[in-house]
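Morning!

As promised:
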Amino acid sequence: QVQLVESGGGVVQPGRSLRLSCVASGFTFSSYGMHWVRQAPGKGLEWVAAIWYDGSNKYYVDSEKGRFTISRDNSKNTLFLEINALRAEDTAVYYCARDTEDSFDYWGQGILVTVSS
Amino acid sequence: SYELTQPISVSVSPGQTARITCSGDALSKQYVSWYQQRPGQAPVLVMSTDNERPSGIPERFSGSTSGTTVTLTISGVQAEDEADYYCQSADSSNTFWVFGGGTRLTVL
């Protein structure tokens, strides 16, 4: 069965960097585009970044262009999100999700990132 | 900017029909998907490309579209349907994805 497992979250000081990982299993990872979606405490879902199946194209929400970097290693079935210059507003649960025809058909369980001094 | 508008809340009694709308200028040209999120859980896809129900989603969930408004309909609402529901779409070039603000469905 399809599984997506995020890791790399935790409590981070403002201004520091963080790299989140999402390990995929149960499907051919290299055939699917992938996304990161985040959800601040008590708030709605916010799409953050997307990457094509082969990593050739990457897209970001306008407000985070330059601070976020999405990447993937198809040999290790792993998706990454690097966040630089973390700020309090980045505190959220970060989900990775698989893309299929413009929908996100499978989601990970999410990983909490807390930005606090 | 590309925005999707949902009602903040919808309340229905068990067995009744719930309708959750999602409005946006581009929705006459772009597909919408819907996600259910129960407290403390990850979102689950319940409807894709306006009205395609994924495997395992009950038949009481259906989707429809009219102009720039897409509607998720839940017929015969059950207590387990109580959750937050989010609509989602993409721009025409598939370079930007957006979610609606979410609708809290309360089963009275």
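Chain A touches chain B through 22 residues (CB under 8 Å).

Hope this helps with the figure draft.
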